[in-house]
Design a protein that fits this description.
Layout: H1 47-61, H2 72-94, H3 102-120, H4 135-160
Helix pairs in contact: 1-2, 1-4, 2-3, 2-4, 3-4
């Protein structure tokens, strides 16, 4: 369940103005009243969309889905949550919004560490995964509980940073 990080490089166009004879007059600025106010992409709230996605993923698990944390059904459920988690991380990072969502990013990192540990410990398919003292149970719990926590953290981050989108 390792992932490959992608580097997103954006190009910023540089405009230069020339002055000289025969040039055209610059356009008069429009008043704020004549332009509709559209929030910049970085001001839009992510919680409205992503909370629903995480709620739907959590609901798919059903009671006892991870009673045996080594079972295929549990591993599939955890994989679905982590795929969604990493998709959210990619969206936040591609929009350069990590500073607006610090609690959310902390939770994502916590869940990613748990996911990596689950994989490295060979929890999927292991008869010992549910044994006392196994890190598998703790890792699975961190991922499962992390799903609704991300939804709460998205909202908290948005309130804290006064995002109005």
């Amino acid at each position: 369940m390792k992932r490959v990080a992608m580097l997103v490089v954006g190009a910023v166009p540089v405009a230069s103005a020339c002055s000289g004879e025969g040039g055209t007059k610059p356009a008069a600025p429009q008043s704020a009243a004549s332009k509709p106010v559209v929030p910049r992409k970085s001001e839009e709230k992510l919680s409205a969309t992503w909370r629903k996605k995480f709620d739907a993923a959590s609901d798919k698990g059903g009671p006892g889905v991870c009673a045996d944390v080594g079972a295929d059904g549990c591993a599939d459920f955890l994989s679905e949550i982590m795929t969604l988690t990493l998709d959210l991380q990619d969206e936040i990072e591609s929009q350069h919004r990590g500073r607006e969502y610090p609690r959310t990013m902390d939770q994502i990192r916590k869940m990613t560490r748990a996911s990596d540990s689950y994989v490295e410990a060979g929890c999927k398919g292991s008869a010992e995964a549910s044994a006392d003292g196994s890190s598998c149970f703790s890792d699975a719990s961190t991922i499962m509980v992390g799903s609704p926590v991300i939804g709460m953290n998205l909202g908290t981050d948005e309130i804290r940073h006064k995002l109005d989108g």
